[in-house]
Amino acid sequence: MKRLHVHVSVEDIPHSINFYSALFAAKPSVVKTDYAKWMLDDPRVNFAISTRGREPGLDHLGIQVEDTDELQEVYARMRQAGGNIIEQGQTTCCYAKSEKSWIDDPAGIAWETFHTTGESTVYGDGTGENRARIAHEKQSSCGAPQAAPASSACCGS
Predict the structure, then answer these.
(1) Pairing state of beta strands 44-50 and 30-32?
(2) No. of H helices and E strands in the chain?
(3) Contact assessment for residue 50 and residue 153, using Cβ atoms and an 8 Å cutoff
(4) Which helix (H) or strand (E) is 106 found in, with range?
(5) Of the candidates 14, 1, 68, the residue with the CA atom closest to the CA atom of residue 41
(6) What is the pLDDT of residues 15-42, one digit of tens each?
(7) % of residues, the chain, pLDDT over 90
(8) CA separation (Å) from 129 to 22, 62, 95, 111?
(9) What is the pLDDT of residue 15?
């Protein structure tokens, strides 16, 4: 069963944990100095916050899967949707080990698709996400290439 993933960049982790814990009526399942995550079943969402994003606000969305068959199914959907897919592969991110790929929707919102394969004691350095975001160049209105903003946030735990 798939789970929607939402990652929000915040400035103050403790303040944001208090806010979202009240909003969700649940404590986070993971809390670190720079990151927190709620694995909610109602609604079924992996909601994460961190201080590692570009700026406060929505950093990216995603679809988390439970096994490699579902991952291949969602990868096929990404190909059908069209656009530039960045296959990141195995990575360490958000205190987890995952396999993931990225795509931007028509509005420019980054979407990741991932399968978490284990925990990590480190957040990850975001290099895979940075390469994915930079590799997905956008055209400005004048036609000159313009790199998409690089995000140091990575998710998927």
Answers:
(1) unpaired
(2) 3, 10
(3) yes
(4) none
(5) 1
(6) 999 999 999 999 999 999 999 999 999 9
(7) 52
(8) 30, 13, 14, 11
(9) 97
pLDDT digits (tens, 9 = 90+) for 58-72: 989 999 999 999 999
Instruction: Give the tens place of pLDDT for each residue, 82-102.
Output: 888 998 888 877 777 888 999
Tokens of 111: 């979407």
CA distance linking residue 143 with residue 138, whole number of Å: 9
Pairing of strands 145-146, 138-139: antiparallel
Rounded to whole angstroms, the Cα distance separating 128 from 73 reads 22
pLDDT score of 132: 54
* Distance from the Cα of residue 59 to its chain's centroid: 7
Residue 28 DSSP one-character state = -
> Which residue, among 73, 69, 75, 106, has the nearest Cα to 88 in the 3D structure?
75
Please provide the distance, in angstroms rounded to a whole number, between the alpha carbons at the two ends of the chain.
16
DSSP notation for 38-58: EEEETTEEEEEEES-SSSSEE
Amino acid 16 reads S
Is the pLDDT at 130 greater than 90? The verdict is: no
Per the CB < 8 A criterion, the answer to whether 64 and 5 are in contact is yes
Residues facing residue 35 across a β-bridge: 32, 50
